[in-house]
Amino acid sequence: MILSKKDIEVRYAETDQMGIVYHANYVIWMEIGRTALIEELGFRYADMEKDGILSPVLEINAQYKKPVKYGEVASVHTWIEEYDGVRVTYGYEIYNGDGDLSVIGYSKHACVKKENFRPVSMRKYFPTWHEAYLKAKKA
């Protein structure tokens, strides 16, 4: 399994009145982690989109354990939990500045044609990406 780690400096605008990261920002951080993982594997979403393929979110989940606060550096850990050639589930753990687990989550995506949102096979459209996902996913 390949694990991507991306540090994020918590900005004031990402927090609520208590100085704690607003819950929706963790979903944005998951996207940052997912993009970092894809780039570490040697690919870019933008290249996929140029070819008329999108990867919409089908489902997203976040379980909040401990807060991340303004001024801390959060660490987003991302991996491929499941992959079947069309759908992929990314796993996430986000740690606060003390190294405590703050959020556990996942997001499920599919690859679809831009013009009609019909699912496509990564094996057929992006064979190199497909092979990288097979090698990178959690055993």
From TrEMBL:
InterPro entries to which the protein is assigned, alphabetical: 4-hydroxybenzoyl-CoA_TE, HotDog_dom_sf, YbgC/YbaW
UniProt entry tagged with the keyword Hydrolase: yes
A molecular-function term among this protein's GO annotations: fatty acyl-CoA hydrolase activity
Protein keywords: Hydrolase
Family matches, as Gene3D superfamilies: Hotdog Thioesterase
CDD domains named in the record: 4HBT (cd00586)
Keyword Methyltransferase: no
NCBIfam families in the record: YbgC/FadM family acyl-CoA thioesterase
Family of the protein in this entry: Belongs to the 4-hydroxybenzoyl-CoA thioesterase family.
The name this protein goes by in its record: Acyl-CoA thioesterase
Native species: Priestia endophytica
